[in-house]
């Protein structure tokens, strides 16, 4: 093997040495291998990257989330010290839009301790350019946040965390693995089944060959943050594509250059993601002591938060941009675009009434 093996070579070597790897291990290597992972390379966002996200479509997205957090902070009695943590802040656009609005509330900026959790050095540089003025600091461990209330925002972060897949067999669930056949990466099954009783009850009656995806990493992140928010007070807002009830079905996907790609073909070159199981996320947050609010679609939530009024105001103030502003609103809200696929999840300290959830 070459002195500086590529990520596909490293993965294949690991399989040859230790045997087939779980999809979670494969995803973890593809996305966050310390030097060759997808999220360790160039900025993947935008028209020339691999995908585009809601904050990059319109400033209104971040502004309405900014209002959301001011409202929560005020409901908590406008504490003099609190942490606002963003998971996977991309270019920092979402947080910059949020804070432009939120810091108009008296006392918010002085009380703010801004923390970012990010793995990509290219994106950290962009976040720094947008958010240095707010004293942003990067954390590598959630337990390092301050002692005040914790407010968390994550847009399209949880879908990027590794999942495991299990295929229903006669005797139980067999984990799907990535192995090599004739030197080519292929999916296979672990022959030893996991008992049916170890999996969520909701999928106990699944038929043979149905696929169950389990986001252990999602659960771990939510559990840690949920415990802190529950002890110190706070709220966690998660926006992502996903499903409301735990269910079977395959959602693992690869995207490169705005096109679907083969999950196994180009490790490290394509984005890998999976839909988020919001029921499972809610169960973990609830166990940590937070109240779970009814899951909303992104479209409904943005409308309840006032996106239509904001669209009118912005287009009135920028008539030459009015068409672009309206089409950005449609892209975020309409069910045929992002409005229904994307969901808004909120777990908060009991007693808080998060805006936008009916
Ligand atoms: C799909 S992008 C979303 C970016 C941003 N939230 C937005 O909406 O534009 C995923 C973000 O999560 C970061 N990320 C992915 N996996 C991560 C991990 N394991 N640890 C920390 N950050 C991660 C990426 O670098 C990127 O900033």
Report on the structure:
- This protein has a domain at 54-162 and 215-348: Rossmann fold (3-Layer(aba) Sandwich), CATH 3.40.50.12710.
- The chain has 358 residues and is an alpha/beta fold.
- The protein has 12 helices and 17 strands.
- It has helices at 7-18, 23-32, 54-57, 59-75, 93-102, 108-111, 121-131, 216-232, 278-287, 298-305, 307-317, 322-333; strands at 21-22, 82-87, 112-117, 137-138, 150-155, 164-168, 173-181, 184-189, 211-214, 234-243, 253-256, 259-261, 271-273, 276-277, 291-292, 296-297, 342-348.
- The structure holds S-adenosylmethionine.
- S-adenosylmethionine is lined by residues 31-32, 39, 45, 53, 55-56, 88-90, 94, 117-120, 123, 155-157, 160.
List keywords for this structure.
single chain; 358 residues; alpha/beta; Rossmann fold; 5-stranded antiparallel β-sheet; 35% helix; binds S-adenosylmethionine
Write the layout of secondary structure elements.
Layout: H1 7-18, E1 21-22, H2 23-32, H3 54-57, H4 59-75, E2 82-87, H5 93-102, H6 108-111, E3 112-117, H7 121-131, E4 137-138, E5 150-155, E6 164-168, E7 173-181, E8 184-189, E9 211-214, H8 216-232, E10 234-243, E11 253-256, E12 259-261, E13 271-273, E14 276-277, H9 278-287, E15 291-292, E16 296-297, H10 298-305, H11 307-317, H12 322-333, E17 342-348
Parallel strand pairs: 2-3, 2-5, 3-4, 5-10, 10-14
Antiparallel strand pairs: 1-7, 6-7, 6-9, 7-8, 10-17, 11-12, 11-13, 15-17, 16-17
Helix pairs in contact: 4-5, 8-9, 11-12
The structure holds S-adenosylmethionine.
Order of helices and strands: HEHHHEHHEHEEEEEEHEEEEEHEEHHHE
Number of beta-strand segments:
17
CATH architecture label name of one domain:
3-Layer(aba) Sandwich
Count up the helices.
12
Radius of gyration: 21 Å
**What would you call the structural class?**
alpha/beta
Q: And the CATH topology of one domain?
A: Rossmann fold
What percentage of amino acids are in beta strands?
15-25%
Report the major sheet: 9 strands, mixed
What coarse outline follows from CA principal-axis ratios?
Answer: globular
């Amino acid at each position: 093997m070459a002195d500086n093996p590529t990520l596909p070579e490293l993965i294949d070597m690991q399989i040859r040495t230790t045997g087939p790897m779980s999809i979670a291990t494969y995803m973890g290597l593809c996305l966050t291998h310390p030097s060759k992972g997808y999220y360790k390379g160039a900025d993947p966002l935008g028209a020339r990257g691999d995908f585009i996200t809601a904050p990059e479509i319109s400033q209104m997205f971040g502004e309405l989330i900014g209002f959301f957090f001011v409202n929560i902070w005020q409901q908590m009695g406008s504490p003099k010290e609190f942490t606002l943590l963003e998971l996977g802040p991309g270019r920092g656009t979402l947080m910059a839009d949020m804070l432009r609005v939120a810091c108009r509330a008296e006392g918010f900026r002085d009380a703010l301790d801004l923390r970012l959790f990010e793995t990509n050095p290219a994106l950290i540089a962009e976040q720094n350019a947008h958010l240095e003025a707010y004293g942003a600091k990067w954390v590598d461990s959630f337990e390092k946040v301050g002692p005040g209330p914790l407010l968390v925002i994550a847009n399209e972060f949880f879908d990027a965390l590794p999942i495991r897949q299990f295929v229903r067999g006669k005797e139980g669930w067999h984990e799907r693995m990535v192995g090599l056949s004739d030197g080519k990466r292929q999916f296979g099954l672990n022959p030893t089944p996991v008992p049916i009783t170890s999996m969520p009850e909701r999928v106990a009656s699944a038929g043979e060959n149905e696929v169950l995806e389990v986001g252990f990493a999602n659960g771990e992140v939510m559990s840690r943050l949920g415990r802190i928010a529950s002890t110190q007070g706070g709220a966690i807002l998660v926006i992502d594509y996903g499903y409301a009830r735990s269910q079977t079905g395959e959602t693992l996907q690869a995207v490169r250059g705005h096109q679907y790609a083969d999950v196994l073909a180009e490790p490290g070159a394509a984005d890998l993601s999976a839909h988020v199981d919001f029921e499972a996320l809610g169960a973990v947050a609830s166990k940590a002591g937070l109240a779970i609010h009814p899951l909303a679609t992104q479209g409904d939530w943005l409308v309840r938060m006032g996106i239509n009024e904001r669209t009118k105001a912005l287009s009135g103030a920028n008539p030459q941009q009015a068409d672009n502003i309206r089409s950005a609103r449609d892209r975020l809200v309409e069910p045929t675009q992002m409005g229904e696929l994307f969901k808004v999840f909120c777990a908060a300290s009991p007693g808080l009434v998060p805006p936008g959830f009916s």
